Structure formats: structure tokens, C-alpha cells
Amino acid sequence: AKGAKVLIGDHAAEGPTLWATGYQGLLDLNAAFAQPRGAGAKGQALLLQHDARDLPQLFADALHIVPHADGTIAIGSTTENQWTDLATDAQCDALIDRARKALPVLQDAPEVARWAGLRPRAASRGPLIGAWPKRAGHYVANGGFKIGFGTAIETARLICDLALDGKDAIPDS
User: Fold this and answer.
1) How far are the Cα atoms of 77, 115, 142, 147, 170 from residue 154, in angstroms, in the given order?
2) Considering just the CA atoms, what is the radius of gyration of the chain in Å?
3) pTM of the model
4) Backbone angles phi, psi at 39, to 5 degrees
């Protein structure tokens, strides 16, 4: 609505520039400040076919068990600060075993899919939001890790208010 462009890769900045660049962006911040600002954390999760769409999500045995409206259930996730590749492995196998122990009704639920990826994890475990020091007109919104989806709308509002209107309402914490 305000004429913003989404540019991927290196581009000359025109107006305020937001760096929402995932775990690689955290590594760039580490290099720029010669101190840890964050990194990537590998996470693995899986999807089972079991219709529990009208039931609440469950947190049990350090697992998130989340029913979906399409009759599947997401099980997740691992948190791996050290990894060699992004393939799923025995840690994903352990997720399904723990989920089936926590909820025996899932014992025969077929596996639909499994995946692994990297989440940006700020050193503080809370998102990094604000002006990029010593880079006028540049802003950072990164490091959401496990709460990124839950905080995305508020993070966007805060960073847009700052970058577009100069209003800094970002909490110190």
C-alpha cells in the first residue's frame, strides 16, 4: 500500500531498507558486530493423518501436537544447534515415537510427510527488531525462531512504524 518492493539478493537501496533475511542475515549481523547476534537452528517435524480438527493442540513431552483442519496432525519439533545437513534423520523418528507414547490414539496414524529446515534464532531467543546501528535507513526484523509466526504481525507493525513513520514503540525487552 505504501509502495514497498521486495528485493532478493544485492540491490541498491531506495528509501528505508528492511533486512528480514533469516538465519543467514543473523550470521551477517554477527560478522558486522564481531559478536553473536544469532544463528540458524535446525528443526525437524512431521505430519500424521489423524482427524482431530475439533480438538485443541497439545504440548506434551516437549512436543507440539497440532491438529489441522484438513484432518492431519503436525508433530514437532527438534531444536538442533549443530547439524551437518538438512535431511530428516533419527531425531525425526524419535518425534513420532514420543508423540505416539503421549497420545496412544496416534499409534496407527500413517505418516504423511516429514521435513527439516533452519529457523533464525537470535542470541536472546526473542526477535531482533529495530534500526541497524551505523546504517542510516536500514532496519532489522529477524530471529523469531519458534515464536516467529506468533509474533509476525506485531513485529511487522513495530518495524513499519519505525521505518516508515519514525515511531519507535519497540519494547526494550
Assistant:
1) 24, 27, 13, 12, 10
2) 19
3) 0.78
4) -165, -175
144 exposure class (CB count in 10 Å sphere: 0-12, 13-18, 19+): buried
CB 37 within 8 A of CB 130: no
The one-letter amino acid code at 113 reads A
Beta strand spans in the chain (E) = 17-19, 38-49, 58-60, 63-67, 72-76, 111-122, 128-131, 138-142
Query: How many CA atoms does the CB half-sphere of 121 hold within 13 Å?
Result: 15
d(CA 17, CA 132): 10
Q: What is the per-residue pLDDT across 32-54, written as a single tens digit (0 to 9) for each?
A: 888 888 999 999 999 999 999 99
DSSP 124: T
Cα–Cα dist 83/42, whole Å:
7
125 three-class SS: coil
73-103, pLDDT tens digit by residue? 999 999 998 889 999 999 999 999 999 999 9
Query: End-to-end distance of the chain based on CA atoms, in angstroms?
Result: 30
